[in-house]
Every structure is written in C-alpha cells, then in structure tokens.
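The protein record filed here:
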Amino acid sequence: MALIDIKMPKMNGIELYNEIRKINDKVKVCFITAFEMQKDGHFSSIAKLNDKDKPAIIRKPIEVDELVKKLKAIIPNS
C-alpha cells in the first residue's frame, strides 16, 4: 500500500503513481490531499488513470485514527 500526497516538491503524486505502476502494477495506492482537486486539475488526472481499481482519495486534515480506519477499509485484512 502506498499513501501518496498529491502535491510534493519535486514530483507530484500522479507522477509518482505512474512510476510505481512501471515497477509494480499490483500496489494499492491511496492519494491524500489538502487541496481542492477540481480547482487544481488533479481530479481529472486521477479520473484518467488507466487502472482497474482507481486509487482512493483522502482529504486532509485528518486525525490519525480516522486515517487508519479509512486505510483499513481500502485494504481489508490488514
């Protein structure tokens, strides 16, 4: 499981996702962001991802307990 922030200093989350997919296409991915994705254009980038199970998106800020709960829902049996 990879938890990837959308906005990062040298490579954005979409670019990192694409690099991960080149190495292993079975890794579950969940994006996390504090930004409004429709305004930033990232929502359309994620919607275009050619992936059979689209990555989940979690909004920040989020409490640790709530984050764990959401991640467990995404990756059952963990």
